[in-house]
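To whoever picks this up:

The parser on our side crashed when reading a file containing two proteins. I've narrowed it down to the boundary between the first structure block and the second sequence. Both blocks are reproduced below exactly, byte for byte. First block:
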Amino acid sequence: MKYQVDDKQLSNAISNHGNDIAAVVSTFGTTQLGNIEDLAERDSIKELRANDVWLHIDAAFGGYSASLSSHINTEIPDSDSITIDPYKFIGKPGVALLLVDKEKTPKVSIPYYSHSHFTLNTTLSAGPVAAWYQTLIDCGDYVMQFMADECIRIAYIAGEQAKENNCKLVNPVKLSIAPVQLGSRQQANYVHDKLLSEGFNVGKIHIEGRDYVTDGLRIVITPKVSPEVQAGSALEVASRISRLSSKFSQAFL
């Protein structure tokens, strides 16, 4: 399962609502799985866009680190607007950028956020944006690329460690998230609570589709600590997830 929009489902939606579709939103790197959606590359979506349907790419989590890392060969698809949140990678809170093709700016603006007078085409004020920009200046391109590469590399290693310990991955590691699949929501909650009590902060995964339910935990690697600490902690978490999930199965199943 690739967690992509099904072709048949997409075709039905366009067939039933094609004349009423004003915009299409596709993701590029999700906070749940780190997966990269291919919706924007579908021929049917390109045809909609040719008929003036707006295409927006939500690259809040994946767009920035993917643009830095040499591990990612996939580029953000061409679109009319893109959301990128660099703070999710570099740890500067409040940096949310909305990039819009100036040739296709909508004539009617619908406010959805309380804008600052200093906003300048972003969804938040210019202060955090300036802090993010200064981080780029202080670190330089090489350091930023190194951090992005290391985060993705360590996430991949953590995913391999989880598989060696008889755990499945929800999705192959694409960005800096290793999504580990568990058997149930109860098991995910149990392992998550135990890890938190031991000082490990991991996120939970719960995804429901029409014919499936997926639960698990996600190991997210960020550049907020040194690569050595990241790697050691990621491997330890992957091993502990396996041990704790086995303990749950023995006790409750």
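<<boundary where parser fails>>
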Amino acid sequence: MCKYKALFVLFLTVLLSSCSNTPTTTEIILPVSSAQGDINKGIIIAQEKDFQKAIIFFSSSIDKNSKIAEAYYHRGRSYQKLGNFSKAQQDYYRALRLNIRYPEVHNSLGVLYTSQGEYRNAIDSYTTAISFNQSYAKPHINRGVVYFREGSYQKALFDFTRALEIEPKSTLALKNRANVYSKLGAKNAVCGDLKQLCQFGNCASYNKLTKIDYCND
């Protein structure tokens, strides 16, 4: 009996010893899920502009877990890059059904509407994107472009200026704001933005205007 008791005590001691070596919750490194892993691979491939292959990975992620809004968003962007606007729109809607507060999706949907000339829908989408992320420069730039096309120059000026407050080195915002200033006849402001643009390495427009003495004051 003592023999068995000793064995039991020995077993319990070993068990407790192994438990004490188990890593805590904060020490455990959880593997990336298979579905998320496919999204990550798809993003890398999309950056290489192989959108057809990227779609395969995003679709694989959706097959494994249909509740990840990110997969639909990125697949929608790939479809949009390929010119398949119908499938892109469907994926954006699916992403928003899973997460209505997804500013990047609203912005991409706005880009899609803009490309189709649906300016009112585009402005609504950009405005929604901004409402969910006040520090998101892209929808300000994109909405400003639509306002510019409509001839709403003051609204466009506001958006490009706001984008530059968020991202002071945004060459796209500077180029567009210079165009607005040009429409408004604000010569000094045009030259100021183009000079700043030149400081970021894009001097073509500024050099062209200095050659004709437009920006030599």
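After patching the parser it read the second block fine. Residues 1-32 have pLDDT under 50 and may be disordered. The chain is about 75% helix and 0% strand.
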